[in-house]
Design a protein that fits this description.
heterodimer; A: 784 residues; B: 563 residues; two-stranded antiparallel ribbon; 26 helices
Chain lengths: 784, 563
């Protein structure tokens, strides 16, 4: 009889803990990734029973949706529901509360979660800390060796860590400790895995972070080595120490308990069934409305636009409205959507920024580093960017007894003035940083290649232009518009930036792309690939700030003189579009008067981006529900209320569907990940989401928690999802049915999302110009 | 008059929010921001009036309740210290109300937040302007209760509720100091005075007459101050208190409440300053807090905990400064420090952006040149194990005794034996032993309804002892006025009613029992220190048990067990 836990077993357990990494790179992903191999409805139920989360909205929610018209009669008819569900689905208790460990210890009147959490989390936080604590930065080979150095003494130690069992355990290796401890705690080794899973899920946020640090150490700036095994070993040793302190401790028995989450019964109860149908109705209420719109647009004849300026935006749902405004202001401007990293698989080292950051989707491991440098004249940028008092307000010197004393004697009085300005009229600091990018390959450093060669540049430019179907004529001015956000006092700031750039600004990618496309050598190579760019066509990189509705253009000085007039006219139009965009956004902000002018709205959103007291700098991806992959003509006439991701794609240039496959490979996980993260955070904000952000406390610069030793909160805070109606993503591609199916089946990983219904997949059929949805492997016409 | 307006305005605002039917957030928001402006304007007028000497320094309402030799006389002082603190808090509440108006937009409990915030402002006003221990104690209790409410703002989770309860325990235990202070002050100096008209010569005279009592008085006050200002050995609670929305954390734990203990020391300075030994003790505790706060703070890997402990350390320095008699200096330090910490807490969520953009790498040892001794590291990370210490000593012993009738019996016999031996005819003490047994039993009881029954039994025994023994039916009547509605409200059920019932039973300043308690103390103090000591212990234990029972029977029932 042995309780050895194999590597595979452990791997299996790790599926069930959150995969959110350090908060500085907030990468949206499907919260229930572990359940994606089964059908959505089953996976949701399994997860809800495992984690103790609610799986559906409440009947009251649906009632409200019906009241506001979000849930329509058509939608109800679609799912065949005759009445709204009345009964709330019971929220299951979850494995931790109803497991072996917590109830087992409760019998001895011990709150095991509280007892182990205080020492464990304080030590882990201190070890992993990225710069909050003032401890010296000594590198250790492992968490375990750090523990051995600092905690292997019973004197001045945590009560349970000074216990002889834990002290002895620290001298062994973690695997042995786990094995021995399981033998002491459990009477049946078959339940070992479940016991370990219960430990991990006792603080899912921390378990997830440790695992992420283990598998992606580069996610932390200051390298820390820790494995989930070490954390488990320490915690289970604490369990044993506590158990040993109990008089008459009897081994826990797992009787009648399930051994693995796959054994969970996922049969629906009656209320769950009704709520599922109601959810379906809610989804189709929206989809049907939009599909009708698309079909009716498709009936009207296509107007070919004459282009003067073409603008490439990110596919982001937030760009959907600015594109509409821009096009309506000037019919000579056309817009396109492409993933906001613009095909550049690189890391970026921003000027004045100490660390390089990934600037492409997280699934790519970039080999190339692009550096941004200050021009000689602007070395002082750093100190002027952030108001000085703010920069200093979190200085660690205030924790120093003497420096803190001297500072606290006068600093507060001098800060009171800023406290007033911060509350009454937050300063909008203009960032001005003349810099340049070095994109051409010029050597290697630390295993990274600095810049791209011209061939690589040509490849990347070609693939992006091909994806959107750019084989017709390019206009004279092409603007590549990345996007970024800015918010103050917001630990979740990374969740607001470009998802395709791993939660970073898309500015450098847009800028680099434009530089590449302007390079005459690169153009020659493009010509050889069959993509001739007109001689007088010029690309310009820019970045749209989605919080402030501001735009910044890069390298304007390189613009040919004859295009200057065109550019200025364009940028004036763009400013106007930004005002309108701000106005549209403020409709959702209760604190802005609804009769305000676009200019006032613009000032208001600017204020939001800097106010310390604003927990909602912008609403981000909230309300996202769709993704259209197709020509702009299909969507340009309709308003999608900033709810749709828009990827440009020309089906006529892609007879095999290869390009579509490439697009879907990126769009499905990125947009699907964003969508499902919002979906689940809204479904159960305390289990899948991060709860309200108002009491959040930043831990170690890698996460947020409630209070000082709460678990790390994963998912999205309530302020980000409160206006979100949880709908799964509906992807509509413009293609013929066969190719659309072929394209999506090429990559099994992508197809899994669709086959298991984690996203809906539909096709705007080129032949009869109707929308079909993929339902259990068959195309079904949506509106008959 | 203006002074009293300044003190009571926040209470008025709080009641307005409580009683109003404003359901629209925008209306509440408009009123509260206006209210803080009114408050600020009045405070400025008050300060100007005082500076120009147009307004009186002491406002004495005269005895409003008089029962035999006991009288309740609200005296308010508007001198330098009080004015500075009033100005500071009016300014900060003015800022925080505006900050929170947007910060808490759409948050559940928007109204409740401001209600409690104003109540906390009122408590602080009362505390700083109090002219005698009765008013001070009322303010003290209100600050304690609002603290409890602000920490447990998020009642859907169990952790904030338990933390709030734990901090309430600390406050309650430290109340013993202020109660003793009140008693000894009355006893030693007589009742006819306020904090300002102590004659230092009398103190010195008293010192010679009752050397032990005066030292004890100083230490008792220090205990209260240490508890309220999160100084050693209570420093563990401050980080636990950082559970509410960031603005309330900033204004209360960063800026105002944390300095309340310090303010108590300043206020009662004439009582302990002439005694050298007490000054040394104050200095030493300040210094230990500085060390503990600094080391714990610098090992904290979370930003709020770090700022919290930095507060502990700086307030420790202020205690040292007070003991040296640098009064003006302390006031400047306190004011500046309060604003600094409020600002730091408010900007604490920015720390991710800030430190990643401007990494500060401190080289070498973080512990100021100390070699990296593992035991220092352990102590710092474990925050000196203060919380574990209290839990494993005081908490454990009380639980142990309370759980077993046998131990209770033994304890009772020992105490009765001692009483018999000291004064065989004194039955007050013996009755109080019974009361203590009930209290301890309530503390040890696992079932919350049993706890409540034992507590009520204990309270009733105490009241009967205090009134029958002294043949004072007025005391009985006054206490009953608080207790009877309390019990009725409690039994009526529902969170709000239970809350009110708890407040009545715990002798919170809204309940006649508050006066009743004061009367009981007044009466018992004539019988010497020993029964009084028992009374205080019973008072504290009952308070703790009632708070625990309250949270168990209300909020914890619907809260998520952990997060």
């Amino acid at each position: 009889m042995h309780s050895k836990v194999s590597k595979e077993d452990l791997e299996h357990l790790l599926h069930f803990i959150p995969s959110q990494g350090p908060i500085k790179d907030f990468i949206h992903h499907n919260t229930l990734h572990a359940f994606q191999h089964e059908k959505f409805d089953k996976g949701v139920l399994r997860a809800s029973r495992l984690y103790g989360a609610s799986s559906r909205l409440s009947p009251e929610d649906f009632k409200q949706f019906q009241g506001t018209g979000v849930l329509s009669q058509e939608g109800l008819a679609f799912s065949g529901l005759t009445h709204l569900p009345l009964e709330k689905a019971e929220v299951p208790g979850g494995w931790v509360r109803n497991g072996i460990r917590v109830p087992g210890f409760e019998k001895y009147e011990i709150d095991i979660l509280r007892q182990t959490r205080a020492p464990l989390l304080r030590m882990l936080a201190n070890y992993l800390d990225q710069g909050i604590a003032a401890h010296s930065q000594i590198q250790f080979n492992s968490f375990w060796s750090w523990l051995q150095k600092f905690f292997s003494s019973p004197r001045f130690n945590f009560k349970w860590i000074s216990h002889p069992y834990v002290q002895a355990a620290l001298q062994k290796d973690p695997e042995t400790v786990i094995e021995e401890s399981l033998q002491i705690l459990l009477d049946d080794p078959a339940y070992s895995q479940r016991y370990l899973l219960e430990i991990l899920l006792g603080h899912p946020g921390w378990s997830g972070l440790i695992n992420q640090v283990d598998v992606r150490p580069e996610g932390l700036f200051e390298t820390r080595k820790v494995t989930i095994l070490e954390a488990l070993a320490l915690e289970i040793a604490l369990d044993v120490a506590i158990a040993k302190s109990v008089k008459g401790f009897q081994k826990f028995s797992g009787q009648n308990k399930l051994k693995d989450p796959s054994e969970i019964d996922v049969t629906e109860s009656k209320s769950e069934h009704e709520l599922r149908l109601a959810q379906e109705s809610l989804e189709w209420s929206f989809y049907l409305k939009k599909i009708k719109k698309i079909e009716s647009i498709a009936q009207s004849p296509i107007q070919e636009r004459t282009n003067k300026v073409q603008v490439f935006f990110c596919i982001d749902d937030r760009e959907c409205s600015i594109r509409r405004h821009l096009e309506s202001l000037d019919d000579k401007i056309s817009t396109y959507g492409a993933a906001g990293f613009f095909g550049l698989d690189c890391k970026v080292l921003e000027a004045g920024y100490p660390y390089m950051v990934q600037s492409c989707p997280v699934v790519i491991s970039p080999k190339v580093l692009i550096e941004e440098e200050f021009l000689e004249s602007s070395k002082k940028w750093l100190s002027s960017q952030v108001p000085k008092h703010h920069q200093h307000s979190l200085s660690r010197t205030y924790t120093h007894p003497l420096k803190g004393w001297v500072n606290s004697l006068w600093k507060g009085i001098s800060l009171s003035k800023h406290l007033i300005t911060q509350v009454f009229s937050p300063e909008v600091v203009q960032v001005d940083k003349p810099t340049r990018l070095r994109i051409l390959y010029h050597g290697d450093r630390d295993g990274m290649r600095l810049g791209y060669t011209r061939e690589e540049m040509a490849d990347r430019v070609f693939s992006v232009l091909r994806n959107v179907g750019f084989q017709r004529e390019l206009s004279k001015l092409v603007v590549i518009m990345g996007h970024e956000s800015s918010s103050n006092n917001n630990p979740h700031y990374a969740a607001y930036d470009c998802g395709a750039c791993s939660g970073r600004t898309g500015a450098q990618n847009a800028r680099a792309f434009a530089m590449m496309a302007n390079d005459s050598e690169v153009r020659k190579m493009l010509l050889a690939k069959g993509l001739p760019l007109p001689e007088d066509c010029h690309f310009i990189g820019a970045v749209h700030n989605t919080t402030r509705d501001e735009v910044q253009y890069f390298d304007v000085q390189d613009l040919p003189q004859q295009l200057m007039g065109l550019f200025e006219a364009f940028s004036a139009k763009f400013e106007k579009a930004l005002d309108l965009n701000a106005k549209e956004r403020t409709a959702k902000f209760e604190l802005f008067p609804q009769d305000g002018s676009p200019q006032q709205a613009h000032n208001h959103v600017m204020m939001r981006s800097v106010a310390l007291f604003e927990p909602r700098p912008e609403l981000n991806h909230a309300t996202n529900a769709m993704c259209v992959v197709g020509r702009r003509q299909l969507t340009s006439g309709a308003t999608f209320e900033r709810r749709s991701f828009l990827h440009s794609y020309d089906p006529s240039t892609d007879p095999e569907g290869m390009v579509l496959t490439g697009i879907l490979n990126a769009v499905v996980p990125v947009c699907g990940g964003i969508n499902l993260e919002y979906y689940f955070s809204r479904m159960d904000n305390s289990v899948y989401g991060a709860g309200t952000k108002l009491p959040h406390n930043v831990v170690g610069l890698f996460g947020v928690s409630n209070g000082v030793i709460g678990d790390l909160r994963t998912g999205l805070p309530s302020q980000m999802i409160e206006v979100h109606d949880p709908l799964r993503l509906l992807i509509i591609v413009e293609q013929s049915l066969d190719i659309a199916l072929l394209a999506v089946k090429r990559n099994p990983a992508t197809f899994e999302w669709i086959e298991n219904e984690w996203v809906h997949y539909a096709c705007f059929n080129l032949e009869d110009r109707k929308v079909y949805r993929l339902f259990r492997g068959e195309w079904k016409k949506v509106i008959t | 008059m203006i002074g009293l307006i300044v003190v009571f305005l926040p209470l008025l605002f709080s009641l307005m929010i409580l009683l109003s039917s404003w359901s629209d957030e925008a209306i509440v928001a408009k009123r509260i921001t206006r209210a803080t402006t009114i408050s600020l304007v009045f405070t400025i007028v008050l300060i100007a009036g005082r500076v120009l000497n147009l307004l009186p320094e002491v406002v004495d309402a005269g005895p409003i309740i008089q029962i035999h030799s006991y009288f309740f006389d609200p005296v308010f002082l508007f001198e330098e210290k009080a004015l500075i603190f009033l100005g500071l808090s009016a300014f900060l509440y003015w800022i925080i109300a505006r900050f929170s108006r947007v910060y808490l937009h759409r948050e559940e409990g928007f109204k409740r937040f401001f209600r409690v915030l104003f109540l906390s402002n009122f408590g602080l006003n009362l505390l700083v302007t109090a002219g005698n221990f009765e008013i001070l104690f009322a303010g003290w209790e209100i600050v304690g209760l609002t603290s409890f409410l602000l920490i447990s703002f998020y009642r859907d989770r169990a952790t904030p509720i338990w933390n709030a309860f734990r901090i309430y325990c600390v406050y309650r235990i430290c109340d013993i100091g202020i109660l003793f202070g009140a008693y000894l002050e009355n006893h030693v100096f007589g009742k006819d005075h306020n904090f300002l008209n102590f004659d230092p010569n009398i103190v010195i005279e008293m010192m010679q007459q009752y050397p032990n009592a005066t030292v004890f008085l100083g230490l008792a006050i220090l205990l209260s101050a240490l508890g309220k200002s999160a100084q050693f050995p209570f420093s563990f609670w401050l980080p636990r208190a950082l559970e509410g929305p960031t603005p309330s954390t900033a204004v209360f734990y960063g800026a105002l409440s944390i300095h309340a203990g310090l303010f108590l020391m300043l206020r009662t300075q004439p009582l302990w300053m002439p005694i050298f030994s007490v000054r040394v003790v104050v200095f030493v505790f300040g210094f230990i807090s500085l060390v503990v706060g600094t080391l714990s703070g610098r090992a904290q890997a979370n930003i709020k905990g770090q700022i919290g402990y930095a507060c502990v350390a700086q307030v420790g320095i202020m205690f040292m400064e007070v003991s040296l008699g640098w009064n003006t200096f302390v006031l400047i330090h306190m004011t500046s420090h309060a604003i600094l910490r409020a600002y730091q807490f408010l900007t604490s969520p920015s720390v991710v952006t800030h430190f990643i953009k401007h990494p500060v790498k401190e080289s070498g040892s973080a512990f100021f040149g100390f070699p990296n001794f593992p035991w220092i590291r352990r102590l710092s990370i474990g925050e000196f194990f203060i919380e574990e210490f209290w839990e494993n000593t005081l908490g454990k012993i009380l639980r142990l005794i309370g759980r077993s009738w046998l131990l209770l019996l033994v304890l009772a016999c020992v105490l009765l034996g001692i009483a018999q031996w000291i004064s065989p005819h004194d039955y007050l003490f013996k009755i109080m032993v019974l009361s203590l047994v009930f209290s301890l039993r309530a503390f040890g009881s696992k079932i919350s309804s049993h706890s409540m029954s034992y507590t009520i039994a204990s309270i009733i025994v105490t009241i009967l002892a205090g009134s029958v023994y002294f043949h004072s039916w007025t005391v009985l009547a006054v206490c009953a006025l608080g207790i009877v509605p309390g019990v009725i409200l409690w039994l009526r059920g529902g969170n709000t009613w239970k809350f009110l019932g708890w407040l009545c039973l715990a002798g919170f300043p809204i309940s006649p029992f508050f006066i009743g308690e004061d009367l009981l103390i007044h009466n018992m103090s004539e019988e010497g220190l020993i029964p009084l000591l028992l009374f205080f212990i019973v008072f504290i234990l009952n308070g703790i048990v009632m708070a625990r029972t309250f949270v168990q029977e209300t909020w914890l029932k619907t809260a998520r067990p952990f997060d």
